[in-house]
Write a structure and sequence with these properties.
Elements lengths: L3 H6 L13 E5 L11 H12 L5 E11 L3 E3 L15 H4 L9 H10 L6 E3 L6 H10 L7 E7 L4 H9 L2 H4 L3 E7 L21 H16 L2 H5 L6 H6 L7 H8 L7 E4 L3 E2 L3 E2 L2 E4 L1
Parallel strand pairs: 1-6, 2-5, 2-6, 3-4
Antiparallel strand pairs: 1-10, 7-10, 8-9
């Protein structure tokens, strides 16, 4: 485990650049988006061409929860197939992007509120690779993951994200990967291919989330439980919502906000995604 004294002696391996990297919140949806040509995956491909080429990608995925905060620190993170019941073609996918122990160490050095553990066991889960392989199909950009401490609340995650702001100045693309509205228990599985099919409550709260993001009312988004029963239906468990808070915590005062893939799927999921900067 890296010590705080080591943090103080750390020398940066990333140089600052003139412009800030944008920040993304990606509604990742079904793992099948990782191999299928969908309107969602096509937008991810487009984004990879439109935004500046990053020096590295740091993903905060809904699918890596840990006690404490960890960061992948291996040279070559494995591709994790953390799902079941899908075609063998999906399990066959490998995304061989390199990692970066040095960038992992630098990222850990920025976080003062907790001690970040350098992890050599995890890899890239489907919240990361199903998206990033469309953005950077050559797998030639280092990809790291930062875990979400499941013992902490929304304010903690939002505040921790602020400590990572310096990475935006150094060419690191930070991606939160989850879903704003994510209630698998209420999915209309027979309507998954029905474009924009969403329950009224799901569309309503998704619209509320977007309005609060536009207006910069992060305090209300952090205290989402006070937004009414629709928010509780949208977020029965918080792990897919927390990555949005990491994204918002990285917003600067001059950043533009835009939305993409703004559609509902299966009634109780939304793919709504956010670009900051």
């Amino acid at each position: 485990m890296t010590t705080l004294s080591a943090f103080n002696k750390f020398t940066s391996v990333l140089s600052e650049q003139e412009s800030l990297m944008p920040v993304l919140f990606i509604g990742h949806g079904s793992p099948m988006n990782g191999i299928e040509d969908t309107e969602f995956s096509r937008k991810w491909t487009q984004l990879g061409k439109e935004i500046p080429t990053p020096k590295a990608v740091l993903v905060v995925s809904a699918h890596w929860l840990s006690k404490g905060t960890r960061i992948t620190a291996m040279d070559f993170p494995k591709t994790i197939h953390d799902f079941g019941g899908f075609p063998k073609e999906l399990f066959a996918v490998q995304y061989p992007a390199p990692g970066s122990p040095s960038i992992a160490k630098e990222t850990a050095s920025l976080i003062k509120s907790t001690q970040v553990v350098e992890d050599h066991d995890w890899g890239l889960d489907h919240g990361a690779w199903t998206v990033i392989r469309h953005m950077y199909p050559k797998a030639n950009i280092p990809v790291l993951q930062l875990s979400i401490d499941y013992t902490k609340g929304p304010q903690y995650h939002y505040d921790l994200a602020k400590e990572l702001y310096g990475l935006r100045k150094k060419g690191v693309l930070i991606v939160g990967s989850g879903n704003m509205v994510h209630n698998l228990g209420m999915v209309a599985w027979d309507r998954l291919n029905d474009a924009e099919y969403g329950y009224d409550w799901a569309k309503q709260i998704n619209g509320t989330f977007k309005d609060l993001i536009r207006k910069g009312h992060h305090d209300k988004l952090i205290k989402y439980e006070s937004l009414g029963k629709e928010a509780l239906l949208a977020i029965p468990t918080p792990e897919h919502y927390w990555p949005l808070l990491y994204t918002l915590g990285l917003q600067g005062s001059k950043d533009d906000i835009s939305f993409f893939n703004d559609k509902a799927v299966g009634g109780s999921l939304t793919m709504t995604s956010v670009k900051i900067g």
